[in-house]
Amino acid sequence: MTVEDRPLTGHDLLWNWARWCWTGETPGNMARYVPQEDDHRPIMVDHALAVQVLYERLPRHEMMIIQAEYTRKNSWFGSLSADGRRTMARRWIQEVTGAVLRQEDYVRLLERFQRRVETEVLR
Fold this sequence. Notes:
The chain is mainly alpha-helical. The chain has helices spanning about 10-20, 45-55, 60-70, 75, 80-95, 105-120, and strands at about 1-5, 5. α1 packs across α6, α2 (about 45-55) crosses α6 (about 105-120) and α3 (about 60-70) crosses α6.
């Protein structure tokens, strides 16, 4: 598989997964966010399901990093710069889980999961 004539990356697979996550029903009174408005490529469901398996194995604070960078990036943090988003996400993570992450920790965990997705989903 390729995206625009280049090999898929973990980042591409995570955006595909995020789009897949938003295709289900919205629970309760939550506002609907439709990422297909930004990306009209078809969702690769098999890839998304493989990413979901890896995501579900993460500790809660790492899941929240992935949420902040992908599934909630635009709906919760859309008006912020990358640094602003990461600062707010680290506060949110600390409030919910008690985990205190430095910016370097956050980025390292994000990049590690991106590499893991790329390696395990595309093998």
